[in-house]
Design goal:
This protein has 244 residues and is of the alpha/beta class. Helices cover 34% and strands 29% of the residues. The longest helix has 15 residues. It starts with a strand and ends with a helix.
Length: 244
């Protein structure tokens, strides 16, 4: 009996206790994939990790696990893989590339630069960390003129999955926008190789928002399969992974 982790929806990276950086991902495809797995007799449990507001499936086999940030996501996957033998991982979540490093007004930033004698980028980072407005306020005042938000990269979750679940079948997702099919497949193959995954579900945003979502499932052996519509994509992902 198989145990499966599915990530879906989008992360939400806090600016302060009220505001956040997020994205448009609804988790609709991830939800359909979870529902399709739940119909299979050989599936025992599905851990469905989802962002706030994401579409969620409804089935007794599916445990809903809401998360907020990329750090939350990594912590939850770590816990699940330490406590369970995971057979399949479907990483469809739209993980933010950036999170907040610090927040300051332009006026104060320029003043600090003039006084601080910053000579390198590391000096600037240290200055911003020291004077981070988020340390002063729970909610950053809307009265701040010309606010500056400094971002930093979030951890690449997909790069950590193979070490967390060495024997699992892992499917990554790649979304590009208005590229050639050759470019889409090239980037998908690079993702598989770099992150030691078994499949990549490659999408072009132009079709994701169109009436017919077209997805291409590429295997690590280079086999490519085309599916039209989210239901067909979900069935394709399940059929290719459950007996892998």
């Amino acid at each position: 009996m198989k145990k499966i982790i599915i990530t879906a929806g989008g992360t939400s990276e806090p600016i302060d206790e009220i505001r956040a950086i997020t994205n448009k991902s609804t988790g609709s495809l991830g939800s359909k994939i979870a529902a399709e797995f739940a119909r299979r007799d050989e599936v025992e449990k599905i851990f469905y990790i989802h962002g706030k507001g994401a579409i969620v499936p409804d089935d007794p086999k599916i445990e809903l696990i809401p998360i907020r940030s990329t750090d939350d996501l990594l912590q939850k996957i770590t816990e699940l893989t330490e406590e369970n033998v995971i057979d399949i991982m479907i990483h469809s979540m739209a993980v933010s590339d950036y999170t907040t490093a610090s927040f300051i007004s332009l006026e104060e930033f320029l003043k600090l630069l003039a006084e601080g004698g910053c000579e390198t980028l590391d000096d600037v980072r240290a200055l911003l960390e020291k004077e981070d407005f988020r340390k002063r306020y729970t909610k950053l005042p809307s009265s701040i003129d010309d606010p500056l938000l400094m971002l930093k990269q979030t951890p690449k979750v997909i790069s950590k999955l193979r070490d967390m679940a060495p024997d699992a079948v892992i499917v990554g997702f790649k979304l590009l926008d208005h590229v050639s099919h050759e470019e889409l497949m090239k980037v998908a193959a690079e993702q598989i190789l770099k992150n030691r995954t078994d499949f990549c579900l490659a999408n072009d945003y132009a079709t994701v928002v169109s009436p017919v979502h077209v997805g291409f499932l590429l295997s690590k052996e280079g086999k490519e399969q085309r599916y039209e519509g989210k239901d067909a994509i979900a069935r394709g992902v399940v059929e290719n992974t459950i007996g892998f």
